Amino acid sequence: MPTPILQVRDLRTQFAADGGVVKAVDGVSFELYPGESLGIVGESGSGKSMTALSILRLVPDPGRIVSGQVLFRDQDLLQLTGEEIREIRGRDIAMIFQDPQSSLNPVLRTGFQVDEAMLAHGRPKRDARSRTLELLKKVRIPAAESRYKDFPHQLSGGMRQRAMIAMGLANAPAILIADEPTTALDVTVQAQILELLGDLNRELGTAIVMITHNMGVVAGLCSRVLVMYAGEIVEQGPVEQIFENPQHPYTWSLLRSIPRVDALRHERLRSIEGIAPDLLQPPSGCRFHPRCPFRIEKCFHDEPRLQDVAMGQQAACWVMMKRAREEMGADKLIDIRPGAASGVHPGEIA
Amino acid sequence: MAATAAAVVVRPVTPVQASLWSDAWRRLRRNRLALAGAIYLAFLIVVALVALVHTPYPMAGVAVATPYSGPSAAHWFGADNLGRDVFSRVMVGAQISLTVGIGTQLIILAVGVPIGLAAGYFKGWFDSIVSFFVNVFYGVPDLLVALLLVVLLGHPGLDKIIIAISVTRWMDMTRLVRGQTLALREREFVEAARASGAKPFKILFGHILPNALGPVIVQATFGVPAAILFEAFLSFLGLGVPAPQPSWGSMAADGLSAIRIAPHMVIAPSIALSLTLMAFNFLGDGLRDALDPRSRR
């Protein structure tokens, strides 16, 4: 096993809100290996973006990282001074954002913004220009010389995201964190951007952390995936394995909710029942229990921990899909309302 | 049907606008009043520059004409109570008005922009202090503060007036920049800049300020006539530039006692003043429309 380039240990990020504390990231631990592409999936509000922002200490007010460690090359990023973390940002760990329209400064020329990413880390001005042109070509922006002088609003959405990626790669970082980089783009452009990220990952050996709510994106790009729910990791493991054999009911539901071309015409699109939990008052026990068809009584009051379920795969569940399949007929399940498969409802417990 | 097909003319595609600024310039040119204001101001600047090296008569030259004599071919705007040429004095007055107007705005920009940026970006105690002082200065009458300062700073002079006006008028710019910064700091491109390791100084002046430049320019353009008017007012009260320096305000004050026999002494500087104020306000309005993306037509 190679040594991880990034180790996140028991990370907790919280927001002070009226009437309590929102635990946006609640005890998240994972490793990232050099050159790997890791997906972090979850719904809106699952804490996946906050996990990414916490790594670079960019959590917006009034958020606070309350505990944990983020070890990058044996250095805890959470202990660095403001000046030291600024040096890391963009040089060793770069980040690209969801909406390329608003992530580029509208009044500055595109090429100049790529230059700046390098100037911020002490590269001389003359080098920056030629390296920018090289980068714009690398991210497959046609006519790079003239695009260099264009303002962001003169570029298409896909082109802008390519420019953002060029900015992210400007200092040849060891890690590129991509926060839903394809969400704001249309589907054909999404595919191109994913292909580009995949190629860059292989060519340059840049480790990619891909944050997305889209399982399809993970399948196309990542080798390993973390599934987050309500601020916690509920399942993690190699992508093929997770797709083949998910063990957490949430992962299972997510995979079932991907629309399929080969589905029968009259078959309903499957969704996950219920809404994401209120993190101000997270559910007791397992946080997924209010929406889980396979819940048992234990799920209401005891919180499950991540445990090994297969080679490199871990899940946090009292039931696990193996048992749900064997004992509750999960594969043939039509009714996926909470407690439907296990027959456990809150009224009966109380 | 064939005829309609033939009638379809391919219109040349208008080229994509190169930038916010060329876009704004195009809109400004279409605004006639703003353009007229700009042309008048360009003319006024030329007059003020010419007055530096040449005036028809020395601006302090006593008895170059008959005192109180009206406009004539030799003295276009007539003569004042000491027989000085009013036209020459209005020319020099333009110099003083523009110096005061632009000078105060430069000071206000130099003070208000960095303070507003820092207050809006860092928030916290610094912002509290800045907001406190802004409110205090809004609370006290600006005339009182300006009068006190002019007296306290000793010998009257152009520099003292510029300082006095700046001290009483810095709040609008500071508050504007602070507000813009508060809004812009939450934008994603600022977060992206921080994620790329940009230093706060770079973020403030390289990313936030360029996006706030439109409103700042408009505010400064409106600030110039306000300062010019304030100077004229101070000079009218006798607290402005020292004699024999001609300010439009002090010239009007000189003429007031003789308004029945020599109205041109009041009218000439007053018209110069009014035109200048109007020109700046028209230009400011035009710039606001041109630079405000929401008013795009």
Task: Provide structural commentary.
The complex is a heterodimer of chains A (350) and B (297). By secondary structure, chain A is of the alpha/beta class. Chain A has helices spanning 48-55, 82-88, 100-103, 110-119, 125-138, 144-148, 157-169, 187-204, 215-221, 239-244, 249-256, 298-301, 320-328, 346-349; strands at residues 6-17, 20-32, 37-41, 63-72, 75-76, 93-96, 175-179, 207-212, 224-229, 232-238, 307-310, 313-315. In chain A, the strands form two sheets. Chain A has an eight-stranded mixed beta sheet, sandwiched between helices. In chain A, strands 2-1-4-5 form a four-stranded antiparallel beta sheet. The longest helix of chain B is centred in the middle third of the chain and has 37 residues, at 86-122. Chain B is built from twelve helices and no strands. With 297 residues, chain B is mainly alpha-helical. Chain B has one domain: MetI-like fold. Chain B starts with a helix and ends in a 6-residue tail after the last helix. In chain B, α4 runs antiparallel to α5 (124-139), α9 crosses α10 and α11 packs antiparallel against α12. Chain B is elongated, with a radius of gyration of 24 Å. The A-B interface holds A 56, 58, 60, 86-91, 94-99, 102-108, 116-117, 120-121, 151, 154, 164, 167-168, 170 and B 16, 18-20, 186-189, 191-199, 202, 206-207, 210-211, 213.
